[in-house]
Amino acid sequence: MAAIKILSVDDEAPLELLMRQYFRRKIRNGEYEFFFAHNGLEALSILYNNPDIEIILSDINMPEMDGLTLLAKVNEMRNPALRVIMVSAYGDMKNIREAMNNGAFDFATKPIDMDDLSLTIEKAIAQINFVHESQKEHAQLESLKNDLTTARDIQQYILPRVFPPFPEDSDKVDIYALMEAAKDIGGDFYDFFRIDDSHIALVIADVCGKGIPAALFMAVSRTIIRSKGAQGLSSAECMTESNRLLAAYSVDNMFVTVFYAIYDIKTGLVSYCNAGHNPPHLLRKDGTISELPLSENTIAGVFDNLEYQEATIQLEQGDTLVMFTDGVTEATDAAFQEFGPDRLDNILRQQADASCQQIIEAVKTGIRDFVGNAEQSDDITMLVVKRL
User: Fold this and answer.
1) Is the dihedral of CA 29, 32, 33, 34 positive or negative?
2) Selection from 250, 255, 240 nearest residue 310 by Cα
3) Least reliable range by pLDDT among 10-19, 208-217, 228-237, 361-370
4) What is the rounded distance in angstroms from the CA atom of residue 28 to the CA atom of residue 23?
5) Alpha-carbon distance 247 to 239, whole Å?
6) Nearest to 10 by CA among 75, 56, 48
7) Is the pLDDT of residue 257 over 90?
8) Which residues, other chains included, contact 308 with Cβ-Cβ below 8 Å and sequence gap of 6+?
9) How many helices (H) does the chain have, and how many strands (E)?
10) pLDDT confidence band for 182 (50 / 70 / 90)
11) What pairing do the DSSP bridges indicate for beta strands 83-89 and 106-110?
12) Rounded distance, CA 246 to CA 299, Å?
């Protein structure tokens, strides 16, 4: 451990000898390192060349620059760890009080009681160590904050962000998606990718928990599901295989709810497997809305021997399938009231002729107006597909 550097500022020469003699053991053991100045000007020069000095023992009455002026100069350095102990005659209490009011850590009176001064120095060292620990923790928090910012950027980067995603079929299908994390990084994700010329995979999922663990499990989940889906498996087969792998990777009982669908661009048929996720809402061209049946499949990533089942729905021209995570319907206002599925459907009914992007923007605006200044409590993710 590095020695504590102490600057003694006093115009009385015998004090230097007294300090060296009294603290000789700590000096010899490398615990204390002393510097000596005879007035404030010399002290400032020493401080300039030794910025790691952390304790100043300063007399108040000195030639050229007194201790109160030195204290003011030290305050301008804005070193939160630096501690100044003022020394003066007992009868000079007015100046001592002024020094204390101006930020001095403590004081000692002449003739100096070295035992008492030693305790005062130890008390100052304890506070200095506390400041250093706080600075270290602050630096670690700043580093973590920077890491989270980078992780958020990476997380957003791995989600598809180019719209329309399949320009060669933009006259047949419209797709748009959004993910807004409640924290720096989130556990929700969406995905879509082409399986073959006629089929597109659609994925929306919600990992349990928040923060870094959820984000890591989110990345693993997305990779596994995309890998299995790209093999051309049915929606049920894809989730059965994905669940088996996710259960092997899961730690601390983490799981993910997933809605995985395969959309036939030519026919509008949607084959889907719902692994414990919110049932999507089907918005028909005429503005009527229905909710897909509740799934009997369970969440993914817990039990590795499950066989998932699939179902189908038919999208006619102008129909829209609205997929979302529970951060949409469970968004709460300041009174902890939930946005709910009814408010969602009221917005969707007015968007029957809108594009997928317009639908998502309308829902996002509706949520923002509803929650007001309340803090976002969960990730908000939507994936919308419309047959043209």
Assistant:
1) negative
2) 240
3) 208-217
4) 9
5) 12
6) 56
7) yes
8) 236, 239, 240, 243, 273, 275, 297
9) 11, 15
10) confident
11) parallel
12) 11
Taking the CA atoms of residue 153, residue 374, residue 191 and residue 245 in that order, the dihedral angle to the nearest 10 degrees is 90
> What are the structure tokens assigned to 157, written together?
């980067």
pLDDT, one tens digit per residue, over 63-92 is: 889 999 999 999 998 898 999 999 888 778
Q: How far apart are CA 200 and CA 281, in angstroms?
A: 19
DSSP for 266-287 reads TT-EEEEEEEBPPPPEEE-TTS
CA-nearest of 307, 311, 309, 310 to 244 is 307
Determine contact, residues 347/287, Cβ cutoff 8 Å.
no
Q: How far apart are CA 113 and CA 98, in angstroms?
A: 22
Question: How far is the CA of 60 from the CAs of 39, 77, 113, 125, in angstroms?
Answer: 10, 19, 17, 22
Range name among 134-148, 255-269, 336-350, 359-373 with the lowest pLDDT average: 134-148
* 282 vs 270: CA distance, rounded Å: 11
Alpha helix (H) ranges present in the chain? 14-22, 24-28, 40-49, 67-76, 93-101, 114-158, 211-229, 235-249, 326-329, 340-349, 356-371
Please enumerate in sequence order all residues whose Cβ is within 8 A of that of 141, keeping only pairs 6 or more positions apart, or say none. none
